[in-house]
Specification:
alpha/beta; Rossmann fold; six-stranded parallel beta sheet; 13 helices; 39% helix; globular
Length: 390
């Protein structure tokens, strides 16, 4: 049996719960490593307002104390730490398939009305009894195409095959952007692209900006170790700028990937409130990512009114339109010029930050929840389950 975390930490007030038979029971998976955690908590918080109860099965490394406290404050959310491996950290296909079977049994025991997998490979061969939604946040095949190119290495091929099998088993696929939906359909030969529900993000309450954060600087945040984030280019840009380029996030990943960034000022991993405090100073936010299906960190920066300097990739163009400045060339000097232009002109920087904040108003948690809940209702209204197919 998996342990449940049904209650808030000691000292916190317990959230009232409605009888289970009055709620739509959603069984969802998540991990505490990256943006999926924020997505799952924001979605769970919103689903509670739609009369849903969420059981969140946690795979991979355990959430830290701050993450657990955030989850405990959400009504009708129960955490189940499984200790099961994440697909992208698993040693082989067999361990992923075994984890999927355990999750299918757990979902059945929970009486799930809807299963929402944030790792589609877990749908492969598991035989979930409830209608199955697979959320396509990222995958090794599309990452490899965007970052490296060429034939997939063996360690990626079996993971790609599991994701393909998971897509085939799902009743509905969703993606956070039309650009990524198109890339997913092309990579896996889907007859139809996944449905698009743009991500939203709850605006984080910020403390006062850290005293050591300069008034004029550039800022980036995320999994700095991920080659797809392209931090090497920002490090090159930082060497050319008088103002600092500050980075928040881990330099080493749970998969052993690691990066060294001698010209960036690294703050290390920060919590949501700490990142919000940095963004409250309204630095120029920059992302040179070569692979970004949506980009929650960019959304958080835009919500705070930061001017955006982004790589010219289809997902960023779709989401941010003319509210961001784009860099078409993957070169440090070009990023340095784009950042420097905004830092030298405070009025321009304020105007671009206001444009980003206005655009960010499109991507609310309420819209994400409404779109997701509508798809749940669509599935539940179907007389028989149908498969996506390849």
């Amino acid at each position: 049996m998996f342990p449940r975390l049904d209650h808030e930490p000691a000292g916190a007030s317990a959230q009232p719960r409605m009888p289970c038979d009055t709620l739509l029971r959603v069984f969802m998976t998540a991990d505490a490593v990256g943006g999926v955690w924020s997505y799952a908590l924001d979605l769970s918080r919103g689903l509670a307002a739609e009369a849903a109860e969420v059981t969140l099965a946690i795979l991979g490394p355990a959430p830290d104390a701050a993450q657990l406290a955030e989850a405990a404050a959400i009504r009708h959310l129960r955490l189940v730490p499984t200790g099961l491996p994440l697909e992208w950290l698993a040693p082989d296909a067999g361990s992923v398939l075994a984890a999927a079977r355990e999750l299918a049994d757990l979902a059945a025991a929970e009486g799930a009305d809807i299963v929402h997998l944030n790792s589609p490979a877990l749908a492969a061969g598991a035989g979930f009894a409830a209608p199955l939604v697979a959320a396509c946040h990222s995958c090794v095949a599309t990452w490899w195409e965007a970052v490296r190119g060429g034939a997939l290495p063996p360690d990626f091929r079996w993971r790609r095959d599991l994701v393909a099998a998971g897509y085939q088993a799902a009743d509905l696929l969703i993606c956070p952007s039309a650009a990524f939906a198109a890339a997913t359909a092309a990579a896996y030969g889907l007859r139809q692209a996944p449905r698009v529900v743009h991500n939203g993000r709850t605006r984080q309450e910020a403390m006062l900006p850290p005293a050591e954060l300069p008034a004029d600087c550039a800022f980036t945040a995320g999994r700095l170790w991920d080659e797809g984030k392209n931090l090497r280019v920002l490090d090159d840009a930082a060497a050319l700028l008088d103002a600092p380029v500050i980075a928040a996030g881990p330099l080493r990943g749970p998969n052993g990937a690691e990066t060294a960034l001698p010209h960036l000022r690294s703050l290390g991993p920060l919590g949501a409130a700490e990142v919000a405090a940095c963004l409250a100073a309204r630095p120029v936010f920059v992302s040179a990512a070569r692979y970004e299906p949506f980009g929650l960190a960019v959304l958080e920066a835009a919500q705070a009114g930061c001017a955006l300097v982004l790589s010219d990739i289809p997902s960023f163009r779709e989401i941010w339109g003319d509210a961001a400045d784009y860099v078409a060339e993957d070169a440090g000097p070009v990023y340095a010029r784009a950042i420097g232009r905004l830092l030298r002109d405070p009025d321009l920087r304020r105007r671009r930050g206001a444009a980003a904040r206005a655009r960010a108003a499109r991507y609310t948690v309420e819209a994400m929840v409404a779109g997701t809940f509508a798809l749940y209702r669509e599935l539940l209204a179907q007389p028989a389950r149908r498969r996506i197919g390849l």
